Q: What sequence folds into this?
C-alpha cells in the first residue's frame, strides 16, 4: 500500500501542476483549456507522451482511492473519527477523478467542466424538499474545509505528515515554502467554491454555483485580477510540487502513509 500511495502522490502532483499552468496561462491570456480537471486532461493529452501521463493519472488516482479506503477500514485506533470521515470524502473525490480520467483515456469522453457539474448538482439538490438547507450546509462545510486548508498551510501543520528528519536542508525548506503557498492557494479556491454554493442556496439559484474554472475566472475579473490569478495559479503549482515531495517523504504508520 505504501508504494501505491506514493505513486498516487505523483499523479496528484501532475494534476495540480496542469491546472496551475492553465490558470497561469488564463491570467496572461493564452489559455487554450479550462482550468479544471477536464481541461487538465485535454492539456496533458495534447503534449508529447501525453497519454502515458494520462495512464499514470488513472493508476495513480486508483492507488489514492485504495489508500483512503485502507485508512477508513483500518482497525488502528490512531485514526480518529474525523480522520476517517476526511479519508472517506477524499476517497470519493479521487474515485471520481479516476473514473473521469479512465473514461477520457479509453473512450475520449471529456469530463464536464467543473462549473457545469456544480450547477447541475446544485439544481438537483435544490429540487428536493429541504434542498435549499442542504445546499447551504454543504456550502458552509466547503467553506470550513477551505479555511482549514488555509490555516494548515499558514501554521505549517502539513509538515507533521512528512519525514522532515530524512530530508536535506534544501528539501525541508522547499517543502515548507511549497506547502505554505500550496495549501493557502488550495484553500482560497475551495473557499470560493463554498461561498458560491452559499450564494446559490440563499438565492435559490443553481446558476450561482461555481466550480474550479469559474472561481479562477472570477479571480481574473477582480481588481488586479490577473496578478491575483497568477499568485493562485503559482500556489496550485506549488501544491503539485509538494505532492512530488510527499511521494518520497510522506510519513507512514504501519506501512500506510498518514
A:
Amino acid at each position: 500500500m505504501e508504494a501505491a500511495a506514493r505513486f498516487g502522490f505523483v499523479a496528484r502532483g501532475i494534476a495540480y501542476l496542469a491546472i496551475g499552468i492553465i490558470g497561469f496561462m488564463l491570467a496572461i491570456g493564452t489559455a487554450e483549456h479550462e482550468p479544471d480537471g477536464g481541461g487538465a486532461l485535454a492539456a496533458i493529452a495534447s503534449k508529447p507522451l501525453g497519454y502515458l501521463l494520462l495512464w499514470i493519472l488513472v493508476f495513480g488516482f486508483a492507488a489514492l482511492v485504495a489508500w483512503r479506503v485502507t485508512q477508513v477500514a483500518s482497525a488502528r485506533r490512531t485514526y480518529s473519527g474525523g480522520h476517517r470521515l476526511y479519508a472517506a470524502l477524499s476517497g470519493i473525490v479521487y474515485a471520481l477523478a479516476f473514473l473521469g480520467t479512465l473514461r477520457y483515456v479509453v473512450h475520449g469522453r471529456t469530463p464536464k467542466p467543473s462549473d457545469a457539474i456544480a450547477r447541475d448538482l446544485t439544481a438537483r439538490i435544490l429540487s428536493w424538499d429541504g434542498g435549499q438547507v442542504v445546499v447551504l450546509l454543504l456550502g458552509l462545510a466547503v467553506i470550513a474545509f477551505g479555511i482549514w486548508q488555509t490555516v494548515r498551510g499558514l501554521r505549517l501543520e502539513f509538515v507533521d505528515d512528512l519525514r522532515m528528519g530524512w530530508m536535506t536542508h534544501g528539501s525541508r525548506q522547499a517543502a515548507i515554502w511549497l506547502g505554505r503557498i500550496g495549501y493557502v492557494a488550495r484553500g482560497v479556491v475551495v473557499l470560493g467554491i463554498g461561498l458560491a454554493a452559499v450564494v446559490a442556496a440563499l438565492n435559490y439559484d443553481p446558476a450561482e454555483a461555481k466550480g474550479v474554472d469559474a472561481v479562477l475566472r472570477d479571480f481574473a475579473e477582480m481588481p488586479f485580477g490577473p496578478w491575483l490569478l497568477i499568485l493562485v495559479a503559482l500556489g496550485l503549482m506549488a501544491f503539485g510540487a509538494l505532492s512530488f515531495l510527499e511521494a518520497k517523504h510522506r510519513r507512514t504508520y504501519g506501512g500506510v502513509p498518514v
